[in-house]
From TrEMBL:
Organism of origin: Rosa rugosa (Rugosa rose)
Domain HTH myb-type: from-to ranges: 9-61, 62-116
Annotated protein name in UniProt: MYB5
Biased composition (Polar residues): 121-130
GO CC annotation: nucleus
Domain Myb-like intervals: 9-61, 62-112
Principal subcellular localization: nucleus
Length: 285
DNA sequence: AATAGAGTCAACCGCTGGCTG
DNA sequence: TCAGCCAGCGGTTGACTCTAT
Protein backbone atom coordinates (compact mmCIF):
# COMPACT_ATOMS: atom_id res chain seq x y z
CA UNK A 1 0.00 0.00 0.00
CA UNK A 2 1.16 3.50 -0.73
CA UNK A 3 1.89 5.97 1.94
CA UNK A 4 -0.92 7.95 3.45
CA UNK A 5 -2.03 10.99 1.48
CA UNK A 6 0.02 14.00 2.38
CA UNK A 7 -3.12 16.07 2.95
CA UNK A 8 -4.67 13.66 5.38
CA UNK A 9 -3.37 15.53 8.39
CA UNK A 10 -6.18 16.86 10.47
CA UNK A 11 -6.63 20.58 10.16
CA UNK A 12 -5.17 21.04 6.71
CA UNK A 13 -7.30 22.81 4.13
CA UNK A 14 -8.31 21.03 0.96
CA UNK A 15 -10.30 21.97 -2.10
CA UNK A 16 -10.40 25.29 -3.88
CA UNK A 17 -7.94 27.95 -2.85
CA UNK A 18 -9.11 31.23 -1.37
CA UNK A 19 -7.72 34.58 -2.55
CA UNK A 20 -6.09 34.95 0.83
CA UNK A 21 -4.26 31.66 0.49
CA UNK A 22 -3.18 32.63 -3.01
CA UNK A 23 -1.78 35.88 -1.71
CA UNK A 24 0.09 34.21 1.10
CA UNK A 25 1.62 31.66 -1.22
CA UNK A 26 2.53 34.19 -3.88
CA UNK A 27 4.12 36.58 -1.42
CA UNK A 28 6.12 33.84 0.22
CA UNK A 29 7.47 32.53 -3.07
CA UNK A 30 8.23 36.02 -4.32
CA UNK A 31 10.27 36.58 -1.17
CA UNK A 32 11.94 33.19 -0.80
CA UNK A 33 11.70 31.49 -4.15
CA UNK A 34 10.27 28.12 -5.14
CA UNK A 35 11.21 24.81 -3.62
CA UNK A 36 11.18 23.18 -0.21
CA UNK A 37 7.50 22.54 -0.69
CA UNK A 38 7.25 20.35 2.35
CA UNK A 39 8.20 23.10 4.74
CA UNK A 40 6.79 25.98 2.72
CA UNK A 41 3.19 25.93 3.98
CA UNK A 42 4.22 26.23 7.59
CA UNK A 43 6.63 29.05 6.87
CA UNK A 44 4.11 30.84 4.67
CA UNK A 45 1.37 30.49 7.25
CA UNK A 46 -0.75 28.22 5.09
CA UNK A 47 -2.83 25.31 6.30
CA UNK A 48 -2.10 23.30 3.17
CA UNK A 49 0.18 20.43 2.35
CA UNK A 50 3.30 21.17 0.35
CA UNK A 51 2.04 19.22 -2.57
CA UNK A 52 -1.07 21.33 -2.79
CA UNK A 53 1.02 24.51 -2.62
CA UNK A 54 3.31 23.33 -5.36
CA UNK A 55 0.38 22.44 -7.59
CA UNK A 56 -1.35 25.74 -7.00
CA UNK A 57 1.79 27.67 -7.79
CA UNK A 58 2.77 25.64 -10.82
CA UNK A 59 -0.67 25.50 -12.39
CA UNK A 60 -2.18 28.81 -11.47
CA UNK A 61 -0.15 31.43 -9.62
CA UNK A 62 3.14 31.41 -11.49
CA UNK A 63 3.58 34.81 -13.15
CA UNK A 64 4.69 33.36 -16.48
CA UNK A 65 1.52 31.38 -17.01
CA UNK A 66 -0.21 32.25 -20.24
CA UNK A 67 -3.93 32.85 -19.88
CA UNK A 68 -6.51 32.46 -22.57
CA UNK A 69 -7.43 29.98 -25.21
CA UNK A 70 -5.00 27.64 -26.82
CA UNK A 71 -4.20 28.93 -30.29
CA UNK A 72 -4.46 26.79 -33.43
CA UNK A 73 -0.67 26.81 -33.64
CA UNK A 74 -0.38 25.50 -30.11
CA UNK A 75 -3.11 23.04 -30.94
CA UNK A 76 -1.12 21.66 -33.82
CA UNK A 77 2.08 21.55 -31.82
CA UNK A 78 0.43 19.64 -29.00
CA UNK A 79 -0.84 17.02 -31.41
CA UNK A 80 2.55 16.61 -33.02
CA UNK A 81 4.35 16.46 -29.73
CA UNK A 82 1.84 14.00 -28.37
CA UNK A 83 2.39 11.74 -31.35
CA UNK A 84 6.07 11.68 -30.44
CA UNK A 85 6.02 11.80 -26.68
CA UNK A 86 2.73 10.19 -25.73
CA UNK A 87 1.12 11.27 -22.50
CA UNK A 88 4.19 12.95 -21.13
CA UNK A 89 2.41 16.17 -20.44
CA UNK A 90 5.20 17.87 -18.62
CA UNK A 91 7.52 17.37 -21.57
CA UNK A 92 4.89 18.65 -23.95
CA UNK A 93 4.20 21.60 -21.68
CA UNK A 94 7.91 22.33 -21.66
CA UNK A 95 7.68 23.09 -25.37
CA UNK A 96 4.75 25.45 -24.93
CA UNK A 97 5.87 28.48 -22.97
CA UNK A 98 3.34 29.59 -20.42
CA UNK A 99 1.27 26.45 -20.59
CA UNK A 100 1.12 23.94 -17.76
CA UNK A 101 1.11 20.18 -17.98
CA UNK A 102 -2.26 20.08 -16.25
CA UNK A 103 -3.73 22.52 -18.73
CA UNK A 104 -2.43 20.60 -21.70
CA UNK A 105 -3.58 17.30 -20.24
CA UNK A 106 -7.05 18.68 -19.69
CA UNK A 107 -7.13 20.26 -23.11
CA UNK A 108 -6.06 17.02 -24.71
CA UNK A 109 -8.64 14.97 -22.88
CA UNK A 110 -11.50 17.35 -23.45
CA UNK A 111 -10.78 18.71 -26.91
CA UNK A 112 -8.00 17.22 -28.93
CA UNK A 113 -8.59 13.52 -28.38
CA UNK A 114 -12.20 13.99 -29.34
CA UNK A 115 -11.26 16.03 -32.37
CA UNK A 116 -8.82 13.39 -33.56
CA UNK A 117 -11.42 10.71 -33.06
CA UNK A 118 -13.92 12.66 -35.11
CA UNK A 119 -11.28 13.02 -37.82
CA UNK A 120 -10.82 9.27 -37.85
CA UNK A 121 -7.49 9.25 -36.05
CA UNK A 122 -6.72 7.19 -33.00
CA UNK A 123 -5.63 9.74 -30.38
CA UNK A 124 -3.42 7.17 -28.67
CA UNK A 125 -1.50 5.90 -31.67
CA UNK A 126 -2.11 8.79 -34.08
CA UNK A 127 -2.83 6.20 -36.73
CA UNK A 128 -5.81 6.41 -39.01
CA UNK A 129 -8.61 4.30 -37.66
CA UNK A 130 -9.56 1.43 -39.93
CA UNK A 131 -13.19 2.06 -39.22
CA UNK A 132 -14.72 5.50 -39.37
CA UNK A 133 -15.71 6.95 -36.02
CA UNK A 134 -19.07 5.81 -34.78
CA UNK A 135 -21.86 8.24 -35.47
CA UNK A 136 -22.66 10.53 -32.61
CA UNK A 137 -24.70 8.81 -30.00
CA UNK A 138 -28.08 9.94 -29.03
CA UNK A 139 -27.67 12.29 -26.12
CA UNK A 140 -29.85 10.13 -23.93
CA UNK A 141 -27.57 7.17 -24.53
CA UNK A 142 -24.50 9.28 -23.90
CA UNK A 143 -25.88 10.29 -20.62
CA UNK A 144 -26.04 6.68 -19.51
CA UNK A 145 -22.43 6.11 -20.41
CA UNK A 146 -21.41 9.23 -18.60
CA UNK A 147 -23.25 8.14 -15.53
CA UNK A 148 -21.42 4.85 -15.70
CA UNK A 149 -18.34 6.78 -14.65
CA UNK A 150 -19.90 6.90 -11.25
CA UNK A 151 -18.09 4.65 -8.82
CA UNK A 152 -21.35 3.00 -7.82
CA UNK A 153 -21.78 1.68 -11.31
CA UNK A 154 -18.33 0.27 -11.93
CA UNK A 155 -19.81 -3.20 -12.42
CA UNK A 156 -21.73 -2.14 -15.51
CA UNK A 157 -19.07 0.15 -16.73
CA UNK A 158 -17.84 -0.41 -20.28
CA UNK A 159 -14.17 0.32 -20.07
CA UNK A 160 -12.95 1.80 -23.35
CA UNK A 161 -9.83 0.35 -24.92
CA UNK A 162 -7.22 2.73 -23.68
CA UNK A 163 -3.80 1.20 -23.85
CA UNK A 164 -1.49 2.64 -21.25
CA UNK A 165 1.75 4.02 -22.52
CA UNK A 166 4.64 3.19 -20.24
CA UNK A 167 7.57 4.45 -22.23
CA UNK A 168 10.55 5.61 -20.29
CA UNK A 169 11.23 9.30 -20.31
CA UNK A 170 13.50 10.25 -23.18
CA UNK A 171 16.23 11.50 -20.91
CA UNK A 172 16.26 8.38 -18.87
CA UNK A 173 17.85 5.96 -21.24
CA UNK A 174 19.23 4.14 -18.20
CA UNK A 175 16.11 2.07 -18.49
CA UNK A 176 17.95 0.07 -21.11
CA UNK A 177 20.60 -0.93 -18.65
CA UNK A 178 19.08 -0.71 -15.22
CA UNK A 179 15.86 -2.53 -14.73
CA UNK A 180 13.09 -0.03 -14.42
CA UNK A 181 10.53 -0.27 -11.72
CA UNK A 182 7.85 -0.28 -14.29
CA UNK A 183 6.70 -3.83 -14.89
CA UNK A 184 5.48 -3.05 -18.35
CA UNK A 185 9.06 -2.67 -19.46
CA UNK A 186 10.27 -6.00 -18.19
CA UNK A 187 10.18 -7.56 -21.61
CA UNK A 188 12.14 -4.83 -23.30
CA UNK A 189 14.65 -4.75 -20.50
CA UNK A 190 15.33 -8.43 -20.49
CA UNK A 191 15.88 -8.46 -24.21
CA UNK A 192 18.38 -5.66 -24.35
CA UNK A 193 19.96 -5.36 -20.96
CA UNK A 194 21.85 -8.60 -20.75
CA UNK A 195 25.04 -7.00 -21.98
CA UNK A 196 26.26 -3.69 -23.15
CA UNK A 197 27.18 -5.22 -26.51
CA UNK A 198 23.62 -6.14 -27.03
CA UNK A 199 22.58 -2.64 -26.19
CA UNK A 200 25.09 -1.33 -28.66
CA UNK A 201 23.77 -3.68 -31.33
CA UNK A 202 20.30 -2.50 -30.55
CA UNK A 203 21.34 1.11 -30.90
CA UNK A 204 23.11 0.40 -34.16
CA UNK A 205 19.99 -1.25 -35.45
CA UNK A 206 17.63 1.56 -34.59
CA UNK A 207 19.71 4.57 -35.51
CA UNK A 208 20.50 5.03 -39.21
CA UNK A 209 24.16 5.84 -38.79
CA UNK A 210 24.65 5.86 -42.52
CA UNK A 211 22.73 9.10 -42.52
CA UNK A 212 25.26 10.74 -40.25
CA UNK A 213 28.04 12.56 -42.01
CA UNK A 214 31.47 11.48 -40.93
CA UNK A 215 32.91 13.93 -38.45
CA UNK A 216 30.32 16.56 -39.11
CA UNK A 217 27.61 14.23 -37.91
CA UNK A 218 24.73 16.01 -39.51
CA UNK A 219 21.55 14.04 -39.62
CA UNK A 220 19.85 15.07 -42.80
CA UNK A 221 16.17 14.65 -43.28
CA UNK A 222 13.98 15.55 -46.17
CA UNK A 223 14.44 15.25 -49.89
CA UNK A 224 17.14 17.79 -50.41
CA UNK A 225 14.89 20.50 -51.69
CA UNK A 226 13.22 20.96 -48.37
CA UNK A 227 15.45 19.16 -45.98
CA UNK A 228 16.20 20.03 -42.42
CA UNK A 229 19.58 19.28 -40.95
CA UNK A 230 20.31 18.90 -37.36
CA UNK A 231 23.54 18.06 -35.82
CA UNK A 232 23.96 14.98 -33.77
CA UNK A 233 26.73 12.90 -32.38
CA UNK A 234 26.84 9.17 -32.64
CA UNK A 235 29.32 8.76 -29.87
CA UNK A 236 27.24 10.85 -27.54
CA UNK A 237 24.18 8.75 -28.16
CA UNK A 238 26.08 5.51 -27.76
CA UNK A 239 27.65 6.81 -24.61
CA UNK A 240 24.34 7.74 -23.17
CA UNK A 241 22.56 4.59 -24.13
CA UNK A 242 25.29 2.31 -22.89
CA UNK A 243 26.61 4.11 -19.87
CA UNK A 244 23.41 5.67 -18.93
CA UNK A 245 23.79 7.53 -15.70
CA UNK A 246 25.64 10.82 -15.55
CA UNK A 247 25.30 12.21 -19.03
CA UNK A 248 21.59 12.01 -19.48
CA UNK A 249 21.46 15.69 -20.24
CA UNK A 250 23.54 15.07 -23.35
CA UNK A 251 20.78 12.97 -24.75
CA UNK A 252 18.40 15.61 -23.62
CA UNK A 253 20.38 18.09 -25.67
CA UNK A 254 20.22 15.80 -28.66
CA UNK A 255 16.54 15.43 -28.14
CA UNK A 256 16.22 19.17 -27.83
CA UNK A 257 18.04 19.53 -31.12
CA UNK A 258 15.66 17.09 -32.64
CA UNK A 259 12.68 19.05 -31.38
CA UNK A 260 14.10 22.29 -32.68
CA UNK A 261 14.40 20.66 -36.07
CA UNK A 262 10.89 19.38 -35.73
CA UNK A 263 9.54 22.80 -34.93
CA UNK A 264 11.27 24.25 -37.96
CA UNK A 265 9.63 21.83 -40.29
CA UNK A 266 6.51 22.83 -42.08
CA UNK A 267 3.49 20.84 -42.97
CA UNK A 268 4.75 20.46 -46.51
CA UNK A 269 7.73 18.55 -45.25
CA UNK A 270 5.89 15.31 -45.02
CA UNK A 271 8.90 13.12 -45.77
CA UNK A 272 10.96 15.09 -43.38
CA UNK A 273 8.30 14.64 -40.72
CA UNK A 274 8.23 10.89 -41.13
CA UNK A 275 11.98 10.61 -40.78
CA UNK A 276 12.06 12.87 -37.78
CA UNK A 277 9.36 10.85 -36.14
CA UNK A 278 11.14 7.57 -36.68
CA UNK A 279 14.35 9.03 -35.35
CA UNK A 280 12.58 10.29 -32.27
CA UNK A 281 10.96 6.95 -31.74
CA UNK A 282 14.30 5.26 -31.97
CA UNK A 283 15.59 7.51 -29.22
CA UNK A 284 12.59 6.84 -27.09
CA UNK A 285 12.30 3.09 -27.43
C1' DA B 1 -38.50 27.99 -16.07
C1' DA B 2 -36.94 23.68 -14.50
C1' DT B 3 -34.26 19.83 -14.98
C1' DA B 4 -30.71 16.80 -16.23
C1' DG B 5 -27.00 15.55 -19.24
C1' DA B 6 -22.56 17.06 -20.99
C1' DG B 7 -18.37 19.62 -20.75
C1' DT B 8 -14.62 21.81 -18.27
C1' DC B 9 -10.81 22.19 -15.32
C1' DA B 10 -8.74 22.80 -10.60
C1' DA B 11 -7.32 19.85 -7.31
C1' DC B 12 -6.29 15.41 -5.37
C1' DC B 13 -4.20 10.70 -5.29
C1' DG B 14 -0.85 7.36 -5.82
C1' DC B 15 3.23 6.13 -7.90
C1' DT B 16 8.06 6.75 -9.66
C1' DG B 17 12.69 7.97 -9.52
C1' DG B 18 16.46 10.91 -7.73
C1' DC B 19 18.98 12.12 -3.78
C1' DT B 20 21.05 11.54 0.65
C1' DG B 21 22.70 9.58 4.85
C1' DT C 1 23.53 -1.40 -0.70
C1' DC C 2 19.51 0.07 1.38
C1' DA C 3 15.86 2.78 3.35
C1' DG C 4 13.60 7.04 3.85
C1' DC C 5 12.46 11.50 2.12
C1' DC C 6 11.07 14.52 -1.36
C1' DA C 7 9.69 16.55 -5.83
C1' DG C 8 7.45 15.69 -9.81
C1' DC C 9 4.42 13.23 -12.92
C1' DG C 10 0.17 11.26 -14.98
C1' DG C 11 -4.43 9.51 -14.01
C1' DT C 12 -8.65 10.48 -11.84
C1' DT C 13 -12.24 12.90 -9.39
C1' DG C 14 -15.81 16.00 -8.50
C1' DA C 15 -17.64 20.69 -8.25
C1' DC C 16 -19.12 23.95 -11.17
C1' DT C 17 -20.96 25.81 -15.59
C1' DC C 18 -23.09 25.35 -19.93
C1' DT C 19 -26.52 23.51 -22.99
C1' DA C 20 -30.34 20.90 -24.63
C1' DT C 21 -34.82 19.20 -23.75
Amino acid sequence: MGRAPCCSKVGLHRGPWTPREDTLLTKYIEAHGEGHWRSLPKKAGLLRCGKSCRLRWMNYLRPDIKRGNITPDEDDLIIRLHSLLGNRWSLIAGRLPGRTDNEIKNYWNTHLSKRLMSEGTDPNTHQKLSQPPAPKENKRKKKQNHKAKNKNNTEDRIVPEKPKVHLPKPTRVTSFVNLPRNDSFTTASTTVSSSQDQVLDHVNNIIPWSDFKEGGVVFSVGDGSSSSDFECDQSRIILNVVAGDDDDHNLENIYEEYLQALLKTTDQDQNCQVELDSFAESLLI
